[in-house]
Write a sequence for this structure.
């Protein structure tokens, strides 16, 4: 290909392997652009892992056999190969983010830039965002998780191979044992099966094992059977929405066998085709570029289906330019000074990303509109304050370990309304506190994160010890509050629980003297509310119908609402607070009210949302 020269390799060039890379990147890109149609495409990453393990093992052992292996040279070459394209893509993502992202989005991007550039993005994402989660589309650097796995492997693998080589271990049996041990670790150690490095290293180690087998066996006579098995392994992943070890094992083994075929059949017509080799040559920058573009299309609220081919074309164009004028240039430079410079740039960019995170996404960027709305929507409410801790101490004689302890006064001589529950209580507190203050009431909050106090004693094994202690603290406060005349009412605020939990809560208040107000959960969103905000430079207008259909809300919460309403009718001292009218009309439930976004995430209130909810409901509590 005259317009796409090939870099000089330390090993004999095999176009069929680049063709296999082309298959892998095509699968990944198609999956990310058309996830329903190409739901099996995620296996492209597993193909990459096997290929990477194969090639890196081949490089190391070939050098060891000729007594020319050098750690310094090995890592220099990895830097020249990986860092240039990575720097260009991450820097571009940060520049776009600076111009167009809202503060909370930009702080996350800054944090992810550091973990991507410093190769621990896979660990960052554990417990943060699942690969198939809808929110994954809103993280432009999420796909760097696989690059992090590979680079961590490259850091360790030379040490393993050199040690095995020096100790004269049988490499075949050594790599087989390593592959088997690594494949069992995730289940034994209960690791994250998708993102964790120890859940993925076996795929790369298996690629190394395939290299050893390629020096001993020729299986080209089975090539049609193996290609068929490879295609079947891909299509068996159709419709998958979570990690499956069995399906991963099938594609890994099939890929390994196919590599064995292509090593002996490097001019294979199918895998050496010009289109696949072209895609294979630009596969690394294409992997980096395509997801950044797709993510920004989602973030800016454009219809990906409508612009799918434009995104595909731009991804390929940018990847070609990156390969031709960035990657080719740096891979031709053997100077260690160049490698040191690239390493320094990566460290610096990571620190800049950390700075954006530490500065809360730079909310005071001059070109951002609606700065006050941004600040109020994404403002983080402090978990505790001194008045809350002092007041709880005076009531209970000690300070419990609950996540949220707040109050508008520390004097027990004043009238109080108590708010208890989970994180929803925490985000509802600011608005109620402001409204109650107007009528001469102080407000006390005691709540937990993800640990709703529906019953004093939760079923065994449903919560951990610390959660049970926090639940006990809330119920101890409720008991003591009954003997304090100035605490007249309790508002219970949580995410929608199981129906039996509602029944248990209401029964527990049957004999209490205090009035209980149970606040129904607000309609949960199925998207990030960020997309409702107006973007700089007119890239995304504030949508008037930013929310969910009313029918969907009823489908999700209909039984919960109906059951709670019926239960409350049985108890004179319990009243249900229904926020539906604030959010919904007969057709739609809105995430925006009076040009302000009510949510800080998919279900918790923003500060503005908290205030509007309190204005809507507080009179039902104050004047009941």
């Amino acid at each position: 290909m005259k317009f796409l020269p090939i870099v000089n390799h330390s090993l004999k060039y095999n176009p069929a392997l680049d063709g296999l890379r082309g298959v892998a990147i095509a699968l990944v890109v198609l999956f990310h652009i058309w996830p329903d149609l190409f739901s099996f495409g995620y296996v492209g990453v597993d193909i990459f892992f096997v290929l990477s393990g194969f090639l890196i093992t081949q490089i190391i052992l070939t050098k060891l056999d000729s007594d020319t292996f050098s750690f310094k040279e090995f890592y220099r070459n990895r830097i020249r190969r990986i860092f240039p394209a990575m720097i260009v893509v991450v820097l571009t993502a940060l520049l776009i983010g600076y111009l167009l992202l809202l503060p909370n989005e930009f702080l996350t991007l800054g944090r992810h830039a550091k973990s991507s550039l410093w190769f621990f993005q896979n660990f960052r994402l554990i417990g943060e965002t699942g690969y198939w989660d809808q929110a994954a589309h809103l993280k432009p650097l999420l796909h760097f998780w696989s690059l992090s796995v590979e680079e961590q492997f490259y850091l360790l693998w030379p040490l393993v191979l050199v040690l095995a080589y020096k100790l004269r271990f049988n490499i075949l049996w050594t790599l087989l044992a390593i592959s088997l041990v690594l494949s069992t670790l995730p289940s034994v150690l209960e690791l994250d099966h998708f993102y964790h490095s120890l859940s993925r290293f076996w795929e790369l180690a298996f690629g190394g094992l395939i290299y050893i087998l390629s020096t001993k066996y020729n299986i080209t006579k089975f090539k049609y059977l193996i290609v068929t098995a490879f295609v079947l392994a891909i299509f068996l992943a159709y419709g998958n929405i979570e990690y499956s070890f069995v399906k991963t094992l099938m594609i890994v083994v099939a890929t390994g066998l196919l590599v064995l075929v292509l090593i002996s059949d490097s001019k294979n017509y199918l895998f050496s085709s010009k289109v696949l080799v072209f895609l294979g040559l630009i596969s690394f920058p294409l992997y980096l570029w395509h997801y950044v573009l797709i993510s920004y299309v989602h973030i800016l609220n454009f219809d990906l289906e409508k612009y799918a081919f434009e995104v595909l074309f731009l991804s390929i164009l940018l990847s070609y330019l990156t390969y031709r004028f960035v990657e080719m240039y740096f891979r031709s430079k053997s100077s260690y000074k160049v490698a040191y410079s690239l390493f320094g740039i990566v460290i610096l960019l990571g620190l800049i990303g950390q700075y954006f995170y530490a500065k809360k996404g730079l909310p005071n960027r001059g070109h951002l509109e609606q700065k006050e709305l941004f600040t109020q929507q994404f403002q983080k409410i402090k978990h505790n304050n001194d008045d809350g801790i002092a007041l709880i101490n005076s009531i209970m004689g000690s300070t419990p370990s609950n996540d949220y302890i707040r109050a508008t006064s520390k004097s027990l001589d004043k009238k109080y309304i108590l708010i208890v529950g989970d994180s929803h209580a925490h985000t509802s507190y600011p608005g109620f506190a402001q409204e109650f203050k107007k009528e001469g009431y102080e407000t006390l909050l005691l709540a937990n994160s993800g640990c709703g106090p529906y019953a004093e004693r939760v079923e065994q094994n449903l919560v951990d010890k610390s959660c049970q202690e926090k639940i006990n603290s809330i119920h101890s406060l409720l008991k003591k509050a009954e003997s304090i005349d100035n605490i007249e009412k309790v508002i219970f605020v949580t995410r929608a629980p199981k129906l039996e939990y509602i029944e248990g809560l209401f029964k527990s208040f049957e004999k209490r003297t205090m009035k209980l107000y149970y606040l129904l959960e607000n309609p949960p969103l199925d998207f990030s509310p960020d997309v409702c905000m107006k973007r700089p430079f007119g890239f995304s207008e504030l949508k008037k119908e930013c929310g969910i259909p009313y029918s969907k809300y009823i489908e999700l919460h209909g039984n919960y609402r109906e059951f709670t309403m019926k239960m409350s009718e049985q108890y004179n001292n319990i009243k249900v607070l229904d926020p539906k009218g604030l959010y919904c009309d007969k057709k739609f439930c809105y995430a925006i009210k009076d040009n302000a976004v009510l949510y800080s995430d998919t279900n918790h209130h923003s500060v503005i949302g908290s205030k509007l909810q309190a204005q809507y409901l507080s009179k039902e509590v104050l004047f009941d």
User: Anything to note?
Assistant: Residues 60 and 74 are 8 Å apart (CA to CA). The chain is about 55% helix and 5% strand. The chain has a mean pLDDT of 89. The chain has two domains: 15-358, 378-622.
